[in-house]
Write a structure and sequence with these properties.
Elements lengths: L1 H4 L3 E5 L4 E5 L5 E5 L8 E4 L5 E12 L2 E12 L2 H15 L1 H4 L1
Antiparallel strand pairs: 1-2, 2-3, 4-5, 5-6
Length: 98
């Protein structure tokens, strides 16, 4: 489903939050504060396109435990996105303020 939605999805990282805007069936905007960033992983191809995961959580479902991953999918510059996510998370962490 992610691959199908990727051409109709935009991503942004502001100084306060992460935004995912999807227009696949209807316009939908998801926002996540810095505290939602609990994992940063990326995979990219040789051309620099790839995915950046910024949140992972285990959910109990009727089929057992499932890993839910929130990510920027099919983006052009994964390294820059990863750095911006790290910067947002670090700026707002309690240890960064001390």
């Amino acid at each position: 489903m992610e691959a199908i939605a990727a051409p109709w999805t935009g991503y942004a990282i502001t100084d306060r939050r992460v935004l995912i805007v999807s227009k696949l069936f209807r316009k939908r905007v998801l926002t996540f504060g810095p505290n939602a960033i609990n994992a940063i992983e990326f995979r990219e191809n040789l051309l620099g396109w790839g995915n950046v995961v910024f949140r992972q959580e285990v959910q109990d479902t009727s089929d057992g435990k499932t890993m839910l991953r929130l990510a920027f999918v099919g983006i052009e510059d994964t390294v820059t996105a990863m750095r911006e996510l790290q910067s947002l998370r670090d700026r707002t962490s309690p240890t960064a303020r001390a």
